[in-house]
Amino acid sequence: MKLRRSMLFMPGNNPGMLQNAGILGADSVILDLEDAVALTEKDSARILVRNAIKTLRFYNSEIVVRVNPLSTEFGYEDVKEIAQVKPDAIMVPKATEEDIEGVDKILCEIEEKMGFEKGSIKLFPLIETAYGLENVYTIIEASKRVTGVLLGAEDLTNDLGIKRTKKGKEIFYARSKVATSCRALGVDAIDTPFTDLDDREAFIKDIKKAKSIGMTGKAAINPRQIDTIHDVFAPSEEEIEYAQRVLEKMEEAKRDGLGVFSLDGKMVDAPIINRAKTTIEKAKLAGLI
Amino acid sequence: MKILKPAKAGTYESNDIYIMIQPNDNGIKIELESIVMKQFGKRIEEVIKETLEKLEVKDAYVVAKDRGALDYTVSARVETAVKRAGVEK
Question: In what order do the strands lie in the sheet with B17-22?
Answer without folding.
Answer: B7-9, B17-22, B60-66, B28-34
